[in-house]
Design goal:
alpha+beta, 6-stranded mixed sheet, 5-stranded mixed sheet, 6 helices, 13 strands, globular
Length: 296
């Protein structure tokens, strides 16, 4: 008796199956990022800082913008991307940020020195110091394309699912499947600071953009509006307050439609990095300063 041969899938069936897994979306995202001038890799492994096991970020990308002659002062930009092949839209619910929120340095970006200090006054041998976050001292919050100048502040991310001909909003597993993995990737790939010297021997500044790229639609709802409405957008930021072992602060990431990814990289990422690069190139040694002249 001859064994019955297993049926073979057609080419269309293979591609359709791969589309559902999201693997093809990862490769398409990687291609867009690579074409923007980044070193790019998929399935980049990192060690979970809590559990010690190996995890992966779907797409990892890096681009260097500046390095001094000695190579001990550098500026680079990093993209950490989770890809989600989604049949339903994502919706970001948010509001307009206030001035205090605009002045909070984004959690994911790493400056070589977290804050600078200066002598505000002296009384005999005693010095009175003041301090400011280096992000604000450098004026990065005021740059035209700075994330600090966003007019949207996403507070909740939900996925829309069609059930029994009715759309339902669901945020189940959003934190565990999207936010937490990106937070851990940010920590795993964060450059080491030189904290052992009064003047750091090296200063590695990494602007890091964690983002979720979805194949589906994306909407933003401004809760500040008297009559809220869902507006189709190419990307929107989402912010979460985090207080857990090893991670504390306001974590932000961007949700991006795949069809808007090229524009996002150009206007959100590269435009800002060029502005920061101009500041660094003008005086690279600023990145190694802990004590500065009184700016007041």
């Amino acid at each position: 008796m001859t064994a019955r041969a297993h049926p073979s899938p057609t080419s269309d069936e293979v591609i359709h199956a791969l589309e559902r897994t999201g693997y093809l979306l990862e490769q398409r995202v990687a291609k867009v990022v690579k074409n923007a001038g980044f070193y790019t890799g998929t399935g980049r492994a990192f060690k979970d800082p809590d559990e010690g096991k190996s995890r992966e970020v779907d797409v990892y990308a890096f681009k260097e913008f500046f390095a001094n002659e000695a190579g001990n002062i550098t500026l680079g930009v990093k993209l950490l991307v989770e890809c989600k092949n989604s049949s339903g839209p994502y919706v970001v619910l948010g509001r307009k940020p206030d001035d205090n929120e605009r002045n909070i340095p984004p959690y994911s970006h790493t400056l070589p020195v977290e804050e600078v200090k200066w002598v505000s006054r002296r009384e005999g041998a005693r010095r009175y110091l003041k301090s400011r976050k280096t992000w604000n001292w450098l004026g990065l919050q005021e740059l035209p394309h700075s994330p600090s100048r966003d007019d949207k502040r996403g507070l909740q991310l939900v996925r829309m699912n069609l059930k029994n001909k009715e759309w339902q909003a669901d945020n189940a597993s959003i934190f565990d499947s999207l936010t937490l993995p990106l937070m851990k990737a940010v920590e795993a790939f964060r450059p080491i600071r030189d904290t052992g010297h009064t003047v750091p021997e090296w200063a590695y500044m990494h602007l890091c953009f964690p983002l979720v790229v979805t194949s589906g639609e994306l909407f933003y709802v401004d809760a500040d509006e008297e009559v809220p409405s869902a507006q189709a957008v190419d990307w929107a930021p989402i912010h979460r307050h985090i207080d857990m072992e090893g991670m504390k602060g306001v974590f932000s990431m961007d949700i991006v439609r795949f069809d808007g990814l090229e524009n996002y990289i150009a206007e959100r990422v590269l435009a800002f990095c060029r502005e920061v690069s101009s500041i660094v190139r003008a005086d690279p040694e600023k990145l190694r300063m802990r004590e500065v002249p009184n700016p007041e």
